[in-house]
Specification:
Blueprint lengths: L1 H32 L6 H23 L7 H4 L3 H31 L14 H27 L12
Helix pairs in contact: 1-2, 2-5, 4-5
């Protein structure tokens, strides 16, 4: 499990690094040489979608979404568990639907490409689809751990 989480974190971080490198390179080239890297904006946007999909997988597993949980805080432990189970089950349903729709989109891009470099869009859609699929798997694992009462095992020590 730790290896899957580490691989997911590494993948999200790698795509964030690519965005930073692409953006910094474009700024450098623009100011020093007076031109832009072709498709830099489209590329950065699509890389951001990939990074977000892998980050979504982690946020779902850790249950670290930005949320307002006043009702949850005021609830009894049993009610908190029921809320967590319901919320995670609902998130799982939407995660599966989102991953499925992204795969449908990925596999039906046809010959669509970026504007300048003519990079196939499926080069970007397929890694994002994998990220959303990993998100659905991690959400299902979270639901199982919550069901078993192992919720304290979900958050790594450095985040707790």
């Amino acid at each position: 499990m730790k290896r899957l989480l580490a691989a997911t974190e590494t993948t999200a971080a790698f795509f964030l690094l690519l965005i930073a490198l692409l953006t910094a390179s474009n700024v450098f080239v623009r100011y020093v040489f007076g031109f832009q890297i072709p498709d830099w904006f489209d590329g950065a946007s699509m890389l951001q979608a990939i990074a977000l999909s892998w980050g979504f997988a982690l946020a779902t597993y850790y249950g670290s979404h930005i949320c307002v949980d006043l009702f949850w805080e005021l609830s009894s432990p049993a009610t908190k568990r029921r809320i967590d189970l319901f919320a995670t089950a609902l998130t799982l349903v939407f995660s599966i639907a989102m991953a499925w729709m992204m795969w449908v989109k990925s596999l039906n891009t046809g010959g669509q490409t970026t504007m300048d470099l003519l990079l196939p869009l499926d080069w970007f859609f397929i890694p994002a689809s994998f990220g959303l699929s990993v998100g659905a798997v991690l959400c299902a694992l979270r639901l199982v751990k919550l069901w078993r009462g192992e919720a304290e095992d979900l958050m790594p020590e450095e985040m707790a």
